[in-house]
Amino acid sequence: MDDDELKPAVELVDITKAFPGVVANDAISFSLRRGEVHILLGENGAGKSTLISILSGMLTPDAGQIIIDGEPAEIRSPRDALDAGIGTVYQHSLLVPTLTVLDNMMLGTNRSFRLDRVHAQKRMHELTQLLDVEIDPDARVGDLALGQRQQAEIIRALWSSERVLVLDEPTSMLTPQGVQSLGRVMRRLAERGLSVVFITHKLNEAIDFGDRITVLRRGRKVGELEPLQMVGKGVDDLKDEIIALMFGASSAGADANPSGNIEKAEWLDQQPVCFRLVDVEIQGDGPKPILDGITLELRRGEVLGIAGIDGNGQKELAEVIAGQRPLLHGQVYLDDKEIQRLSVAKRQDLGIRYVTDDRHGEGTVGQLSIAINSVIKRIGQRPFWRRTRIRHAVINEFARTMIAEQDVRTPNEKVPIATLSGGNMQKIVVGRELAKGPRVVVYNKPTYGLDVKTMQVVLNQIVEQARRGTTAILISTELDELISASDRIAVMYEGRITGILPSRPGIEAQLGELMTGASA
Amino acid sequence: MTVPLSPAPENDDLDHPRSDKAESRLKRSLTTISVSVLPVVAAIIVGGLLLLVLGRNPFLFYSNVISHGLIGSLGRQESLIRMAPLLLLAAGLMVAFPAGIWNLGGDGQFVLAGVVVAALGPQMAPYTNGWILFPVLFVVAFAVGAAWSIVPGIMKAWLGMNEIITTLMATFLGLRLSALLVKEFFADPSTTVPQTKVLPVKDRLPRIFGTRVNIGLVIGIVAILGVHYMMTRTAFGLRLRIVGMNPAAAVHAGMNMKALTMSIFLISSGLAGMAAAVQIVGVDGVVRAEWNPAFGFTIVPLVFLARFNGPAVIGFVGAFAVLQIGGEWASRQADLPNYFVVVLVALMLLFLAVSEYLQSRSVRAGER
Ligand SMILES: Nc1ncnc2c1ncn2[C@@H]1O[C@H](COP(=O)(O)OP(=O)(O)OP(=O)(O)O)[C@@H](O)[C@H]1O
Ligand SMILES: [Mg+2]
Asked: Which CATH number applies to B42-50+58-363: 2.60.40, 1.10.3470, 1.10.10, 1.25.40?
């Protein structure tokens, strides 16, 4: 490593950014060297997204300086950032699904009136070379697999010039292979002299992919691990060190879910079957059905994990159970009552709950307060409404309790929910489904975007609820999470259940096989 | 992920009515006011420049507007009378727009309801008194207006068809149908002009305290305040706003989208029908073939300027009525076509868009 490489390409100096009621960034300094992958870690609401929003021009800091190549720089808009060679991939796609990849690239970046297709094709070629990936420029973005879509997103971020690539929680929706190939892309970019900022909640990824780690807590920078500190230490020691930094020294490592699996299995055997799907089928646009003859039986208090690579019908299964999607044929039973024709609202009354994985799209209404969002599925119901009149005091009180119970970081319950950090928003989405007597809860990737500690809290909550008699269907792509929380695990592949296994450590390989279509 | 706040502070105050800091609340209402008032001021200035270019004296024009539409007692009463139907139409839009439904069929619903009321009123009047006549006519007007939106409503709710197109088509058809009805079925045989029978003046809406202003104004204000209350305080209103802000969230939360969509169409169009009843039973007493005052279209920008806020709508409608009544006179004085008032309203809308854009930029820059 020579001097030039150690000199920062971009430096954030004493960046401070306050929102009403919170200091999201408190005099944070953060430097990016040429050719490094720099990991940004921190609990939910620590200020990671705020910091990179400042770097990418989405927010302007209250105080502090941005220095690029030794020169103070003004970044007042996303355009300024792109011009300075800082490209960002946000958690939500900025691509238009109905347009082709190439059109999408030209959409945001073509500055002259005329579309310069030839130049765009050339640039596209350069960047796919740089990333060492293959993407058909004429494919519709909506038809791309998730991993490829993300590569397109990266290409878009690097389109106008390439110096810094910022990735905000890019791996939460990827398959393990997708994560690996993203890791390769980042490494390759770093080798070409770019700097990469990578935000994640998964410590394994941080340690595998990162050269340097910066840890934030409650708006402050609390630690930085240099490459030299990172090599030579065992992975577990490193993890402990990071966790101590992230949550404060007092916090021991996140406690795992108490097992007692054998007792639970015996107890479960005595519980009645309370939820059934019989031969459920739904049709997609293509010739293949999205769900193809799904039959499941769940006992009261059972946690059934659903494993599978994203996009094999898990989301549709959840929507069928919630009532958001009509089924072609088949039955859904709660106890012995057929419910497949009931509306979403009726099923909610019966105790069927759905924790969506799409918290921004359908889970919340960004402009409305946290309080309203916490009761959005109970509009018009007592005690929050009386004779259809809204009772703000009761709703606010309810929301305050939820905020305290779920440890949501927010100044108060009246702020628009869009101001919450990703993980804190997720806590509300989970918390509200558990209120008021749930009987069957479908959790679709409930830990997505949560920091390790909160993730464990949520998983424990699911297990706890189940012990008190709530049946849970836990959809996830994380096998260890499924194994730790479930009683049984069903695997979905192309809309079918390819196998159901009792959950215990060591079945990863078996699950992995089922996930790729081999039958049990 | 830090999400930029929604550019428009739309209904901001509705959901945090008791915000903790009075200061931030003041700031918020100041921005809201400036966003609404600045476009009006800008439109007046640019309109003035336009008058200069046309060789007219802008000060004379505007002072004519004010003196005739607001200060002169006759004109002021005219303005108040004009407010009544406009308020009811605006109330209808205050239901539809926040829910993201672009009911642009107001004029068709209005005219058709007006024709039916004008045909029915003189028939009924000899046999009843006001206590029966007026409620019946209002209910009928509501029903006719609502009925004229059933087809666009169904097309939207069940087939997902764009309601802008269907309601505009329905307006076109409604206007033709109205003309046909007047000429062929409801024409008064005692005159050669194609028009309905005239509702005798004694059978029109009662007036307020010896003025010429009828109680339609009261009905209009009550309608606005009622809708405002409904949208801000009731479960139904919150559902409608959620449908407008994020339809996917509405589905996820278990709302009955088809029923909600239909009720938006019916209420909104029913109110447009009632607006016609106020105009016919309160003022005109008769409908000629090809009648179409186009109130429904002119009211659209005002509802946006007022950001669906009831009291603000009343203010804007009042100002607009003055502009319309005074503007007719001032335009005639300045030898300009009456359309000049419409130009002013269009300018306001344009500047509204500009000021919203500027505001959303400053929000994004975090300078709120
Ligand atoms: N636009 C905003 N308005 C008000 N507060 C905000 C806004 N954006 C972020 N915040 C607050 O700033 C703090 C930091 O949020 P940030 O999104 O940076 O957290 P994060 O580290 O990315 O968390 P997560 O891991 O959950 O995504 C949070 O308390 C959040 O509520
Ligand atoms: Mg974040």
From this structure: 1.10.3470
